[in-house]
Structure formats: structure tokens, C-alpha cells
Amino acid sequence: MQNQKNILILGSKKGSKLPNIQVDKIYSANGAAERALHYKKLYPNTPHTALVGAKYFLECKEVKERVIKSKPDKLMVRSGPITVPDEFNNYKCEIVQWNSKKDLRIQSQYCKLGWLDIVFGEIMFYEDDFLTKLRHLYRCIKHKGFLGGSTGFFSIFLAAMENPNSNIITSGIG
Q1: CA angle 81, 33, 96 (to 5 degrees)
Q2: Which residue has the higher pLDDT, 119 or 66?
């Protein structure tokens, strides 16, 4: 039997600690990429995949800087595309970008009712009254798509999908 791999998922929740064990891969959500940089000081050869939401990456300068500073091996952009900053061209970084539909397909694999769970979640939890729920649903269908889970939560889905039968260790996912 093959040894199980340890996969680390990093979020930015305050007070969370980095585990002091060697892992096979790191996934980080948005600005938590900076935490991967600290982890890689202890274990420098650990591959790092930074996941970011396209809009958040473009609009939040602090998150963008933290991701760039971490020098991930792979940058995965949700609900993209973005214009890739020049800093990623200065070293070997694989860039993967996908749209909201692919994002929804990946998340749907982990929901009992598939994409319907994500649609119901958007309708039920983002707005309070019936009319605003309908407006939100219309905007999601017509313009922005369905986000579903947070980037931290999505990082867990992606790590599990890419690393079946591995130990998933989370730190800072709130």
C-alpha cells in the first residue's frame, strides 16, 4: 500500500497556527499565500498552489501583494480571467484560470444535490427578503455566476480532488 500524502490548506483566520510537520503540497486561499511563504522557510521544497478569486485579486491590493510575494509554484484564478502581473513571469509559475461555470462544476461534485445546492445556498443565505432573493438569483444567472463556497472552502475541494486518498490538513480556514 502506498504511503498517504499530507496536504496542507492555509487560510487567513487570526490565531491559527502552522503545523510543524512536513507536507507534500500546500494550497492557500487568497492572502493566506503569505503564510505559505513562512511555512516554506521550514520546508523549502514543498510545492505551493495559491488560489485566488479574480475580482478579489484585482481589487484588493494587499491580497495581490501577499500572493505575489509568496512566489507560488501555481496560481489558480477562480472566476477569471485576470491580466497576470509581470512578477509571475520572473520565475517559473504555472497560471491556471477558469470561469464561474468550471468553478461551479468542481464544487458541485461535493454537494448532495450537485449545482442545485450551490444555487439554493446563494438564494437562501445572501439576501433576506423574497424580492432581493429573486434579484440576486437574476444577477447570478445573467451576469456574475454562482460563487458557492469561499476560496478557502474551495481550496479544500480542489486539494481533495487533486490528491485523492491523502490526509487533508487545514489551518486558518474559518
Answers
A1: 30
A2: 66
Return d(Cα 126, Cα 129) in angstroms, integer.
10
- Give just the sign of the alpha carbon dihedral 1, 107, 102, 155: negative
> Which helix (H) or strand (E) segment is 171 a member of?
strand 167-171
Model pLDDT for residues 9-46, shown as the tens digit of each residue? 999 888 898 888 999 999 999 999 999 999 999 999 99
Pull the grid cell for residue 23.
Answer: 507536507
Query: Taking a C-beta distance cutoff of 8 angstroms, is the pair 22, 43 a contact?
Result: yes
Return the H-helix or E-strand segment holding 31.
none
- Largest Cα separation within the chain, whole Å, is 55
Tell me which residue of 76, 58, 100, 159 sits closest to 173, measured CA to CA: 159
Strands 25-29 and 94-97: unpaired
Q: Which residue has the cell 442545485?
A: 116
| DSSP code string of 128-155 | SSHHHHHHHHHHIIIII----S-HHHHH
Determine the pLDDT at residue 30: 92
